[in-house]
Amino acid sequence: MNDCIFCKIAAGEIPSKKIFEDDDILAFHDITPQSPVHFLVIPKKHIRNIMELGEGDILLVGRLLNKAQELAVSLGCAEKGARFVINCKADGGQTVDHLHVHVLAGRPLAWPPG
Ligand code: AMP
Ligand code: ZN
User: Fold this and answer.
1) Domain limits of the chain?
2) Does residue 97 have its Cβ closer than 6 Å to ligand 1?
3) Is 25 in the pocket of ligand 1 (CB under 6 A)?
4) What is the structure's pLDDT at 114?
5) Burial 45-56 (b: 16+ CB within 10 A, else e)
6) What CATH superfamily classification does 5-105 receive?
């Protein structure tokens, strides 16, 4: 049984505050927002992390980033900008093992990360 929380969100088994959905991609607000705008863009296909992407995923990843950009613009982030983040595995701070792009915006964000 697939107990991946983001697969369950993609299947509608766990509720989310959806921003966008099509056959391949879902975007929803992060449940613990770290900035005034904080949403996640995921492929509906279960890909564990960016290390596991294959050549067959190139188009999907392009669409994922394009959708992240498009939604950031539609949520008013074009002028001041945003941060697009993909955490990967333990050292990258990944806590949900289903590929996702974080989009954070709405306040100045510090760098470097902790
Ligand atoms: P990461 O640490 O990069 O794996 O990010 C996982 C993100 O998923 C965190 O920012 C969590 O707040 C978020 N998250 C976990 N569960 C949910 C959920 N049910 N709905 C929305 N966001 C979630
Ligand atoms: Zn999954």
Assistant:
1) 5-105
2) no
3) no
4) 87
5) eebebbeeeeee
6) HIT-like (3.30.428.10)
